[in-house]
Design brief:
With 204 residues, the protein is α/β, with parallel strands linked by helices. The chain has six helices and nine strands.
Length: 204
């Protein structure tokens, strides 16, 4: 279980939020909502260890993630708002490298299969710079097909996706949750997830 306890975030001299608490159990999804500038991305970055809360604690299975015990960071996959791809590398190379950096070595065959499942058949060997924004996003999201982590932290995963890609993501999220996975995500787009425990965290 992932828990946030009385979290606070300060940027410069501005407090974005305080006293934010939540819990995410196996098989459940937490959707973080709020207007631009309310701290949604900042909260997700805290959960990934990319920044520290000004106050409060993040717990993984009852243990503070600051202790680096319990394998928390090995159990999570974070996909940020930006594409994070390298323009001169192919879709296949991008997926293999990003997976390796996250601690999951995959073969070219596995990478090709994941990219094809994400609707990129025939584009596996193209440099990312020639792909559309939606196709680049699919390259990034293909990592969810090859990672084996329990917790997915996703910042606007649906951005730039067309209807078919949104359907792919819906199916992928549902499958992950049905298998006992956990998801924390932000999105401005409405998405209906079947057979999942969904809660919302509103930041003002």
């Amino acid at each position: 279980m992932l828990q946030g306890v009385n979290l606070a975030c300060v940027r410069g001299d501005r407090e974005l939020f305080r006293d934010v608490s939540f819990s995410v159990a196996a098989g459940s999804l937490l959707q973080v909502r709020g207007p631009n500038g309310s701290g949604k991305t900042s909260l997700l970055r805290m959960l990934c260890g990319l920044s520290n809360p000004a106050a409060g604690e993040i717990l993984w299975n009852g243990t503070s993630v600051r202790s680096r015990d319990g394998g928390y960071y090995a159990d999570l996959t974070y996909i940020g708002h930006s594409s994070g791809t390298k323009d001169d590398l192919t879709a296949l190379e991008n997926l293999q490298i990003s997976s390796a950096l996250a601690g999951f070595e995959i073969t070219a065959v596995q990478a090709v299969e994941a990219l094809r499942r994400m609707g990129l058949k025939g584009r596996e060997m193209l440099p990312v710079k020639v792909l559309s924004q939606g196709q680049r996003r699919r390259v990034v999201l293909a990592r969810l097909l090859v990672c084996k982590t329990a917790l997915w932290i996703l910042d606007e995963p649906l951005v730039a996706l067309d209807v078919s890609a949104v359907d792919l993501m819906r199916n992928l999220l549902e499958q992950h949750l049905q298998q006992g996975g956990m998801v924390v995500m932000t999105t401005h787009q409405e998405i209906e997830i079947a057979a999942a425990a969904i809660s919302q965290l509103q930041l003002s």
